[in-house]
TrEMBL record:
It comes from the Bacteria. Belongs to the class-V pyridoxal-phosphate-dependent aminotransferase family. Csd subfamily. InterPro entries: Aminotrans_V_dom (IPR000192), Aminotrans_V_PyrdxlP_BS (IPR020578), Cys_dSase_SufS (IPR010970), PyrdxlP-dep_Trfase (IPR015424), PyrdxlP-dep_Trfase_major (IPR015421), PyrdxlP-dep_Trfase_small (IPR015422). It comes from Marinobacter salinexigens. GO terms for molecular function: cysteine desulfurase activity; pyridoxal phosphate binding. It is an enzyme of class 2 (transferase). This is Cysteine desulfurase.
Length: 417
């Protein structure tokens, strides 16, 4: 078996994975009598003690509603809550915390933008998405298109799982109003060339939204360098708590957009004759927010910032390389998505085996993966499969775990051969 400290090459820094794993209590348990091998990070990543402690401390020492209480606990809670917003701003390199909107996750963030841009759309306008999008970056645009008469147009992908860039360029025209694209595919692991896509869109005045849910566990995006109009991500995929996410938006666009929900906090003045809206970012944050979850997300970002990012990327690259090397050891195994640039995700099928059976049999051996269509039915249709099995790795996974996965797959394949 391979050493726990992994790096891509001898010239790159090694990550002390064994020490890092001690930061994640859930990884030390057994499942079905076997040590847990958690390879479903693309669905939801595990939480370090730093996140658990931050949320526990909030509830034990400072819980109160924010922005409203004229007392010490209210001040503490507000300080922690807004401090987390500043942490997110720094993580994204946004120009101001006014551009950081708390949401329940990427899905709500995209819905917020789609509904906010609806007044700009009319019959015949086009919204470009990619064929590899998660349903969360397809369905909200379809709903808005149905109301406005606009059309949702997919950018094709190649069999390798990369965007057809010639098709992208040919689809751009005077009717294109929005480009909504995943930074990283949740199914294929493909890293899309979003900087180039955004640059082409900006030349034509097209509004751009990036679904960063699968990117932020692996990369730290710079929204000012990208010059995207909107960037959305979820906390739980980047080692933070569930129930909270972030929408970054350029302030001038957020100012122009109508509120997404009404209620407390998002108002300036309410009367039965007229209501006026609060300033950014509160205009889009109706009701009591997910305060503890915001604190937890801030702690997750701080935790990631305490690690050597280059070493993390090298470790994850080594995991992917090892997985690809072992594919031929499982007869009938085929990887879906072989892009040159991808994060450590492998979606696969094995001849004669249903993905759900693979997942169930792996679980019996303590190995957690994802199976199904992964909320990407159009992409499954493109590949002509009902679904795939997907193993998605994080920096706390080990080369030993990669090898355990393939040993288990070999056993399953022999059982059904």
């Amino acid at each position: 078996m391979t050493d726990l400290s992994v790096a891509n090459t001898a010239n790159q820094p090694a990550l002390d994975v064994e020490a890092i794993r001690r930061d994640f209590p859930i990884l030390s348990q057994q499942v079905n009598g076997k040590p847990l091998v958690y390879l479903d990070n693309g669905a939801s990543a595990q939480k370090p003690v730093a996140v658990l402690d931050a949320m526990d401390r909030y509830y034990r020492e400072m819980h109160s509603n924010v922005h409203r209480g004229a007392h010490t606990l209210g001040d503490r809670a507000t300080s922690a809550f807004e401090g987390a917003r500043e942490t997110v701003r720094g993580f994204l390199n946004a120009a101001s915390t006014r551009e950081i909107i708390w949401t329940r996750g990427t899905t709500e963030a995209i819905n917020l933008v789609a509904n906010g841009l609806a007044p700009r759309l009319q019959s015949g306008d086009e919204i470009l998405v990619t064929q590899m999008e998660h349903h969360a970056n397809i369905v909200p645009w379809q709903m808005v298109a149905e109301r406005t008469g606009a059309k949702v147009i997919p950018i094709p992908v190649t069999p390798a799982g990369e965007l057809e860039l010639d098709s992208f360029h040919s689809l751009l025209n005077e009717r294109t109003k929005v480009l909504a694209v995943a930074h990283v595919s949740n199914v294929l692991g493909t890293v899309n060339p979003i900087a180039a896509l955004i640059n082409e869109a900006k030349k034509r005045g097209i509004i751009t939204l990036v679904d960063g849910a699968q990117a932020v566990p692996h990369y730290q995006p710079d929204v000012q360098a990208l010059d995207c109009d909107f960037y959305a991500f979820s906390s739980h995929k980047m080692f933070g708590p569930t129930g909270i996410g972030v929408l970054y938006g350029k302030s001038h666009l957020l100012e122009e957009m109508p509120p997404y929900q009404g209620g407390g906090e998002m108002i300036e003045r309410v009367s039965f004759e007229r209501t006026t809206w609060n300033t950014l970012p509160y205009k889009f944050e109706a009701g009591t927010p997910a305060i503890a979850e915001a604190v937890g997300l801030g702690a997750a970002i701080d935790y990631l910032g305490s690690l050597d990012r280059k070493a993390m990327e090298a470790a994850e690259s080594a995991l992917l390389i090892r997985a690809n090397d072992l594919v031929e050891s499982v007869p009938g195994m085929e990887i879906i998505g072989t892009a040159t640039d991808k994060v450590p995700v492998i979606s696969f099928k094995i001849a004669g085996l249903h993905p759900s059976d693979i997942g169930t049999l792996l679980d019996q051996q303590g190995i957690a993966i994802r199976t199904g269509h992964h909320c990407a039915m159009p992409l499954m249709d493109f590949y002509g499969v009902p679904g795939t099995a997907r193993a998605s790795f994080a920096f706390y996974n080990t080369l030993n775990e990669v090898e355990q996965l393939f040993t288990a797959l070999q056993k399953i394949q022999r059982l059904f051969a």
